[in-house]
Amino acid sequence: MIKKALFSLVVVLVLVVGIGFFYIDSIVKSGIEIVGSEVLGTNVTVASVSISPLSGNGTIRGLTIANPEGFTSENIMQLGEVTVALNVGSLTGDVIEIEEITVIEPLITYETKITTDNMRALLANLPSTPGGAEAPIDPENAAGKGIIIKEFNLNGAQVNLVASIIEQSFTLTDINLTNIGTENKAATVSQALEIVLKAVSRGLLNADKPGLSELRESVEGRVQESVEKAEEAVGQGIQDATSRLKNLLN
After folding, report:
1. What is the residue extent of each domain of the chain?
2. Which residues, other chains included, contact 199 with Cβ-Cβ below 8 Å and sequence gap of 6+?
3. How far apart are CA 8 and CA 189, in angstroms?
4. pTM
5. How far are the Cα atoms of 31, 68, 94, 124, 222 from residue 141, in angstroms, in the given order?
6. In degrees rounded to 5, what are phi and psi of residue 117?
7. Distance between CA 194 and CA 5 in Å, rounded?
8. CA angle 47–50–53, rounded 5-degree value
9. Which of 212, 158, 149, 211 is nearest to 181 (CA)?
10. Can you give the pLDDT at residue 138?
11. Is 65 within 8 Å of 36 (Cβ atoms)?
């Protein structure tokens, strides 16, 4: 009898933990996609989320942020793997408490134009907070939920610089931010994203970008590639015309 009771208890615990995993993963995935897309004004998708309902530690994979309108590349950010440590109980409250977020080797496409770039365009999409930074959190609005991030790390970011016909790659210096929002004054999701994106934007502007000689080689390579393709097309056209002429004469 006791063995049966213990077995039943184990089954119940397994079911509770399993449901907890699904419940938390679903909340986090939907929250990132819905709120992220709303606040950033562009499509945000997540491939998968796996967070322990007991410890709050987990991994977010395949988080992708589409490029703002007006830019040619498909995405501005592809965050392959993000590790998180959060207070699970805070997910259903007014303020979400996150101990740490670490983004591992993301791919950033930094697309520049004469007067702007896609990072600044993404920042411009962020909604202004009515009443400024002192405005109260609106718990009825998912995008207005309070958020506290004690530590944020962006490590080993690979950047593709796209400007006109120039395309080069470089590595961004690691970014570390602390205390985005506090217990006495939580940040909104929009405010937290603004802090992170401004730090990334500063990193991009101050990064050791490819030198003039590298850029010149890139341009010359692309021009040469275009010339070769044009010559190939012309040569093929001449061959086709010659073949058609022979067929007519025969």
Report:
1. 2-210, 212-250
2. 154, 175, 177
3. 42
4. 0.72
5. 12, 23, 10, 21, 49
6. -150, 170
7. 53
8. 150
9. 149
10. 47
11. yes
**Residue for token digits 């007067």?**
115
| Size of the chain in residues | 250
What are the tokens at 11?
Answer: 């089954």
**Can you give the pLDDT of all 250 residues of the chain as single tens digits?**
554 444 444 333 333 444 444 478 988 899 999 999 999 999 999 999 999 988 999 999 999 999 999 899 999 999 999 999 999 888 888 899 999 999 999 999 999 988 889 999 999 999 875 444 444 444 444 556 799 999 999 999 999 998 877 788 899 999 999 999 988 889 999 999 999 999 999 998 888 766 544 544 544 544 455 445 555 655 565 565 556 655 655 5
Dist. CA 78–CA 62, nearest whole Å: 7
Q: What is the pLDDT of residue 184?
A: 85
Residue for token digits 């207070």? 87
Whether 158 contacts 168, CB under 8 Å: no
Give Cα separations from 175 to 12, 118, 136, 234 (angstroms).
43, 19, 28, 50
